[in-house]
Amino acid sequence: MKVLVIGSGGREHAIIWKLSQSRVVDRIYCAPGNAGISEISECIEVESKNLSTFVDFVKYEWIDLTVVGPEEPLAKGIVDLFLKEGRKIIGPTKAGAQIEGSKVFAKEFMKRYKIPTANYQVFNSYTYAEEYIRLKGAPIVIKADGLAAGKGVFIAKTHDEAMDALKLIMKEKVFGPAGDRVVIEECLQGQEVSYLVFTDGKTIIPMVTSKDHKRLLDNDEGPNTGGMGTFSPNPIITPELEKEILETVIQPTIMGLRAEGIIYKGILYAGLMIVNGKPYVLEFNCRFGDPETQVILPRLETDIIDIFMSISEQRLSKVNVKWKDEASLCVILASHGYPGTYKKGIPISGLEMVKRLKDVMVFHSGTGFDEEGKIVTNGGRVLGITALGQDLKDARNKVYSAIELIHFDGMQYRKDIGLTV
Ligand code: AMP
Ligand code: GLY
Questions:
Q1: Could you write out the DSSP letters of every residue in 370-413?
Q2: At what angle are helices 103-112 and 251-259 packed, to 10 degrees?
Q3: How many whole angstroms from 138 Cα to the centroid of ligand 2?
Q4: Of the CATH numbers 2.60.40.10, 3.40.50.20, 3.30.70.20, 3.40.50.300, which one belongs to the domain with range 2-92?
Q5: Right CATH number for 125-180 from 1.10.3720.10, 3.30.1490.20, 3.40.1280.10, 2.40.50.140?
Q6: What does the alpha-carbon distance between residue 241 and residue 276 come to, in Å, rounded to a whole number?
Q7: What is the architecture, at CATH level 2, of domain 327-403?
């Protein structure tokens, strides 16, 4: 089989790493990929603004299946386009991807189906939004409606911070039309968990549980990022809590979408806050998480192609998905300045040494090659050092020992991933 993966981060590297172990996959392409991905697949440049170029490529190369990593092509309707052309692709249609692409859609949908989430109001008027913030007081959460590369959410601790966020989104339009509307919601306090499932629109198969660490610095301090480290399993999610998440969040979501004419196929990712033992949805994502995928897929025993094909053909109930009874942990090595501005093109050393370590995997996020073909940094999040271990402590020790061997100027990372759970 020939498979195309769209994307260029650690999530896509982990998907391709898993696909490369499949007994039926003999060729993998990635558009556009990165330095690490190019070691195990063929990276191609495709004009990604124009989705039909992907269809042309898939037809020309006789690709059997396409897997979409990031949310943007899904929100723009890449799945609808592929299905119209009779091509297999993993991910929801444009209508389904609204669950991530529009926070207003997601909140109103949750209200319709009584899915637990923070209380909120939607505003398209700056003046009314300002008034509401004054009325409610801080802390309060301000969210741009549309996709904002993970930067559109502001947790305002004070009234001034809330007003600054509102101005940025609605007046200065830093996210463009994504900020035409805002969701203003109550600030939930609790423990954050990531809960991902495979679904073909009928059957739901949970992935192993995980936890992301969104803040840049140890002890959850500093600004929000795309994610600085993950581990799996997440011990916060007991079997009882998992049952509740499935019954109150995941099943009503898939069923609610179906009731609205949307057969949601692919990955559904619920970002949850556990408040007094109960799950509340912070956000939905219509794709794999990054860096959750880097800890989830190393624990998957089943051939991932069997899962993907059965999602596409709506026979997921026939697949017996098996997971390794081990723990995994991933620490992101980021560029100095991330999540703000950072330099690119900085040489990375030690990668060859880490390759020799047992149970350790390096998933590249933002890497490229210099003129001499050496691997250099090419993004804010650069590498995800991942290990499997008999428990979280063992996986953590392996990851941090491996990090000792890797260096690039300005490298920053959290030291506390998996330290407290
Ligand atoms: P989102 O993109 O909506 O998941 O928001 C990004 C991050 O902001 C989440 O991972 C949480 O850490 C935080 N967050 C979002 N909504 C809330 C909320 N209502 N209360 C507290 N924290 C939140
Ligand atoms: N790790 C958070 C996300 O993928 O959105």
A1: -TTS-EEE-SSEEEEEEEEESSHHHHHHHHHHHHTT-B-TT-B-
A2: 100
A3: 26
A4: 3.40.50.20
A5: 3.30.1490.20
A6: 11
A7: Alpha-Beta Complex (3.90)
Interval 134-173: pLDDT, tens: 999 999 999 999 998 878 899 999 999 999 999 999 999 9
Angle at 260 between CA 255 and CA 254, to 5 degrees: 20
Contact predicate 80/52, CB 8 Å: no
Contact 285 CB / ligand 2 (< 6 Å): yes
Q: In this predicted model, what pLDDT tens digit does every residue of 339-372 receive, in sequence order?
A: 999 999 999 999 999 999 999 999 999 999 999 9
Ligand at minimal distance from the CA of 147 is 1
- Please state the separation of Cα 320 from the chain's center in Å: 24
pTM beyond 0.90, yes or no: yes
